[in-house]
Design a protein that fits this description.
The chain has 362 residues and is an all-alpha fold. It has a domain of 229 residues. Helix 4 crosses helix 12 and helix 5 crosses helix 6. The two termini are 20 Å apart. It has 17 helices and no strands.
């Protein structure tokens, strides 16, 4: 079975590389803009072949060497904001300012948190994150492809999905070097989580978060989980279970073990969207849940009707973003269109591996 999976992975990788070579052969390459757009449309419409699978690195060494990771960026403003929020449900103005300073520096971990806090109305000074992140690009008829690509992290080499996978690969590599422990191991997992969340790969992001927590027992990873479990963002909101976690901390500091001992945190699932989904769709859904327009599908009050309403709203936003993206791409260059195509292709490959139970993978 492993050999078969490896065969199909290598086949997909070969096809992607062959397409890239054919596209860049010369300026009069046979593959047209319309052909690439058609491939993007196919990716939008194709059903995902999902399968549950443990976390592995899906990049070659050459691909990893080409990715420039921001390893040394600070995490204190992020961690400090979560500590305040998890303790008092409020964030001080100073903590908000520190957070937004890193957002202006285009730091991805802090941008993710600022977006989440903005849409659950717990950060008064986070409003500017919408402009900085080009969140509303799809609403304007004059938006260009650079704004579209920005919401995926830029071109392929700087994309959220590629950096999420690269940080995961680095974490797994560091974990395997038993004789040389990397002090930044937990940060690799945290930054992988942030990039995957921004890319809209929520289940993979949560798997990374929990796996990192199981290996490192890191406070920032643990604070992140408690924050997610305390708000309607991507997983079950359960304040009683979070409170129970805090009580359990008095007896045991093994955070991952404590999480797995709580019934409501077993068999966790995350809100997952289509390939067009990223932090834009996530933000819109978080806003609607916070305002009471829709109910989280994981709520204890959820019914089949409310779940259907959630799916309808999610599909509406995805279609709106898809239509806007295709319109923008028609005026883009062939290379710009191809950058977006490569991002979607990697998202498709990774989304196909993330279905199933989160906390039972390890």
């Amino acid at each position: 079975m492993i050999a078969i999976c490896r065969y199909f992975f290598l086949l997909a990788l070969f096809c992607d590389l062959f397409f890239a070579k054919d596209l860049n052969r010369d300026k009069n390459a046979d593959i047209s803009k319309d052909a690439i757009l058609a491939k993007i449309q196919e990716l939008y419409n194709a059903p995902l072949n999902e399968k549950s699978q443990a976390l592995t690195c899906n990049l070659t060494k050459k691909q990893l060497d080409e990715v420039k990771l921001d390893i040394n960026s600070p995490i204190f403003p992020y961690f400090n904001a979560l500590l305040e929020l998890n303790t008092s449900e409020k964030i001080s103005k100073i903590a908000q300012d520190l957070l937004m300073q890193e957002v202006r520096n285009k730091d991805r971990l802090h941008t993710l948190l600022a977006l989440q806090l903005h849409f659950i109305k717990k950060c008064d000074r986070c409003e500017k994150v919408r402009d900085i992140s080009n969140f509303d690009y799809y609403r304007f008829s004059n938006s260009n492809v650079q704004k579209l690509l920005y919401t995926e992290g830029g071109n392929f080499k700087s994309s959220f999905v590629l950096h999420g996978e690269a940080f995961l690969c680095k974490a797994l590599e560091s974990k395997s070097l038993e004789s040389k422990k990397d002090s930044k191991l937990a940060q690799y997992f945290l930054k992988s989580y942030a990039n995957f969340m921004l890319a809209g790969l929520h289940t993979r992001a949560l798997n990374v978060l929990l796996y990192g927590l199981s290996l490192t027992n890191d406070n920032a990873l643990y604070a992140t989980f408690k924050f997610l479990a305390s708000n309607d963002i991507v997983i079950l909101k359960n304040l009683n279970s979070v409170h129970l976690l805090k009580i359990m901390e008095l007896d045991s500091k093994n955070y991952f073990k404590n999480i797995n001992m709580i019934r409501n945190f077993k068999n966790l699932k995350a809100i997952e969207g289509s390939l067009v989904s990223n932090y834009v769709i996530s933000g819109l859904l978080i806003r609607d849940m916070d305002m009471g327009r829709i109910l989280s599908p994981f709520s204890k009050f959820a019914t089949q009707q409310t779940i259907d309403e959630f799916k309808q709203k999610q599909q509406y936003y995805e279609q709106e973003l898809q239509d806007s993206s295709l319109k923008i791409l028609k005026n883009a260059t062939k290379q710009e269109i191809y950058e977006y195509y490569r991002i979607l292709t990697l998202k498709e490959r990774l989304k196909g591996q993330i279905s199933g139970l989160i906390t039972k993978l390890y």
